[in-house]
Amino acid sequence: MKAILPLLFIAFLQLTFLNALAQTYPKGKLLYANTLATKEDTAGWRMEGAGQVEFANGWMKMFSPNEKGHHVFWCPQEFPENFIAEWEVQNLYTEAGLCIVFFSAKGLNREDIFASSLPKRNGTFKEYTKGAINNYHISYYANSKDHPGRETANLRKNKGFHKVQSHEPGIPLYSKAIHKIQLVKFEGRILLYIDSRKVIDWLDDGKHLGKILQGGKIGFRQMKWTQFAYRNFNVFECNSVEDFKQ
């Protein structure tokens, strides 16, 4: 038994080292950096629907006053086809809520989603999933009042609301901890990590549900019951996805 203990300890150190490596991901050039700490940080961002943001202690709180309606807050910058996006979140109201990230969002004819030729949007879900824009979206926290306690994170491809992956849990339903989200897109490969735990890993073949979506905008959506805080939204180039295979 005494002879085995040192071997077990070495194995433990090796596993710890490998896990540390697995949580260190390569990033290319920084494309966008925003602490989301002040009102000035979100100048140019667009709110669609009955959402509101407030700022305190280095965080942006997003919510709907009196739970009036669902909402989407769009970053104004256009991002390339391949990117790594990171941000931190904290749930401020664990009774109910749902958080989604939209990405690679473009008009059906590749227009900017803010183009005047496109219909105005007001946070109603079908406008983003079955309307005049294409995108991918991932629901990484799901505990809405109409479907409570879902837990699993869903990846869908739009237009069409096509669910392409759903099996890993997202942010724990009643967690008030700070969680780090990492979203990776490289060509047709899409991955999402929560605190370095892989939640989504899917390859769009560009055939079954239409062409692979390329560059576009990123936006944060919440259902009207949600109160989440956000900070440190950063987007980097992604030059390869090989190092994310784990």
Question: How does this model look, in words?
Answer:
The protein is globular and about 45 Å long. Strands 1, 3, 4, 6, 11, 12, 13 and 15 form an eight-stranded antiparallel beta sheet that branches. It has one domain: Jelly Rolls, CATH 2.60.120.200. Helix content is 9%, strand content 43%. By secondary structure, the chain is mostly beta strands. The chain contains two helices and 15 strands.
What count of structural domains?
1
Helical content stands at under 10%
Strand percent estimate:
35-45%
| H-E string | HEEEEEEEHEEEEEEEE
Q: What overall geometry do the principal axes of the alpha carbons give?
A: globular
- Report the sheet with the most strands, covering strand number, pairing sense and barrel closure: 8 strands, antiparallel
Using only CA atoms, what is the Rg? 19 Å
CATH topology: Jelly Rolls
Alpha carbon gap, first and last residue: 33 Å
CATH class: Mainly Beta
Structural class: mainly beta
Key features of this structure:
mainly beta, Jelly Rolls, eight-stranded antiparallel sheet, 9% helix, disordered N terminus
